[in-house]
Amino acid sequence: MPWYKYNYPGDRTLASSYSLETGTPECTDGTFLCAINVNSNPGMPAEPDMDTPGLQNAINSALSSGQETGIVKLRTTAS
């Protein structure tokens, strides 16, 4: 699965708020959303599949706990 970097201040629930990365993005452990690791949207490979089961829960859980998950990376600053 590819990594998609979150483009602050975009809506974190929209695929257009993420950029496809060529590798694992550099994210300093923090409390702000940095990147997600999910399958590509079948119709638009440069965009993440935001309908991935459990994705929104994983993002919300990581943000509320400050703990990264296997599919969510956090960073120290919002942008």
What would you say this structure looks like, in words?
With 79 residues, the protein is of the alpha+beta class. It has one domain (3-75). Helix content is 14%, strand content 30%. The chain is built from one helix and six strands; from the N terminus they run βββββαβ. The chain has a four-stranded antiparallel beta sheet with strand order 2-1-3-6, covered by helices on one side. Strand 4 (40-41) and strand 5 form a beta hairpin. The radius of gyration is 11 Å and the shape is globular. The model has no long low-confidence stretch (mean pLDDT 94).
Descriptive keywords:
79 residues, alpha+beta, four-stranded antiparallel sheet, two-stranded antiparallel sheet, 14% helix, globular
> Looking across the biggest beta sheet, what order are the strands in?
2-1-3-6
Number of helices: 1
Number of strands: 6
Strand content: 25-35%
Summary, kept brief:
By secondary structure, the protein is of the alpha+beta class.
List the helices and strands and how they pair.
Blueprint: E1 3-6, E2 18-20, E3 32-37, E4 40-41, E5 44-48, H1 55-65, E6 72-75
Antiparallel strand pairs: 1-2, 1-3, 3-6, 4-5
